[in-house]
Amino acid sequence: MALLEFKLPKNLTKALKITTYSPKRQQVRVLKKLLKKARFTEFGQKYRFDELLLAKNPTKKFQEYVPTYNYNKIYAEWWHKTLEGKPDICWPGVIKYFALSSGTSEAASKYIPITKDIIRANKTTMVRHFLTLTGYQDIPVKSIGKGWLMLGGTTDLQKGPTYYAGDLSGISATKVPFWFQPFYKPGKSISKTKDWNLKLDKIVEEAPNWDIGFVVGVPAWIQMVMEKIIERHHLKTIHDVWPNLAFFVHGGVAFEPYKKGFERLLAKPLTYIETYLASEGFIAYQDKQNGKGMKLVTGNNIFFEFVPFDDQNFDSEGNMVEGARVLLLSEVEEDKDYAILLSTNAGTWRYLIGDTVRFVDKQRAEIIITGRTKHFLSLVGEHLSVDNMNKAVQLVAGELNLSIPEFTVAGEPHGTFFAHHWYVACDEHVDKELLRNRIDQTLKDLNDDYAVERDSALKNVYLDVLPEEKFLAFLRHKGKIGGQHKFPRVLKGKMHQDWREFLKTGA
Questions:
Q1: Residue 352 belongs to a domain
Q2: Can you list the residues of the chain whose pLDDT is less than 70?
Q3: Judging by beta carbons within 10 Å of its beta carbon (0-12, 13-18, 19+), is residue 415 exposed, middle or buried?
Q4: What is the largest CA-CA distance in the chain?
Q5: d(CA 90, CA 347)
Q6: Residue 129 covered by a domain
Q7: How many structural domains are present in the chain?
Q8: 29 phi and psi, to 5 degrees?
Q9: Same domain, residue pair 317 and 421
């Protein structure tokens, strides 16, 4: 039976009704719903949620009463209590699940609360997104009704005193709706496998037994598993085993660097669809073919605020300063970078998730991800963003006909001045000096501040070309394999030290 033939449960069908309200009005309704549900929690009592609900302008009062938080602050003041099993702290009840998230630059794991309410909300958004796929001209309806492979973390979660913890993808896989289970691959048995390499081996062996219509995951890991399947079963392309494979749902990193490598594994083009699913919530998804960006989920369970990502609101290390300017959705402008604050039904309140976005269509609340607050380089005022880096690599790779699936950049001293050090993954023959010069020049063309500083205090650019496997080996070495783990585009602090040591010793 095809997936689209299933009748959705009544409560989910009701939740899926697409509201006709404007994004601004949706956001007010979402905030009121969150405040009402959490008003008897410790957090709700401290910040007088009952009073906020009676205010003429609850959104502005919410901003006046409730402080902003980063992870360290909200954990120290509130979330540590939820890990101890105490109920009704930031959200009603006991928190039974936590998503382990270390981002891509920090060593210690963060415990992000995952409530029943947010799991339910993520499912609703997932199905809303799924239903938009029928409007994509390049996706055959039969492929939507086939199996889907989600390459995520293990569903065999870590057991704490009163909770379970693991990758969000692993937690989500344990909660797959019954009406999706016949189509979900690799299935419950393989998904429980903790050893990432063993899990991949099982997937590779079982691949010919599945009829896969679409794949979901981080590009690097999806590409690797497809390469292994082709090699193991002596195929020319992945379509030799999955002829109905039509689209790839990805997120977390820019896809363009991987596209050339992907296309070498295919007999026919795939449609690439971007989503924005973070540990803190399902934030946005691409809802139409050839859309400029992803549409924010403004009418479900997330109240959004935005902080202009500039020198007035963030320090040189990417930390939000005291008294930073915070805007509502209705106050943002197109083509400017913003850091996101989220309030959700997981007890996340005015929480800085660390990502930066840019609005490409304000009326539709459509965004692109431009980087992270701590993943940028501005040693001397060059203000080099991940978006700049991605574009430069994409343009130069196309110009030189290269596949560059991974790269990372670090700032280094250069005498009394500074330099950037690029590490680029490429398994083809490449003129390293030509690549260095072309990336440097392209960045000058893209970023005026960078161009100015390259003639001043940013004295040099170094570049090393490494096999792609070296990047994956480092992630394995750090215990960051599979699931939602990505290689950081900017290396700072301990991660930079560990990378340099790894390149020297391989361990």
A1: yes
A2: 1-20, 102-108, 153-155, 173-182, 252, 481-485, 507
A3: exposed
A4: 68
A5: 4
A6: no
A7: 3
A8: -65, -40
A9: no
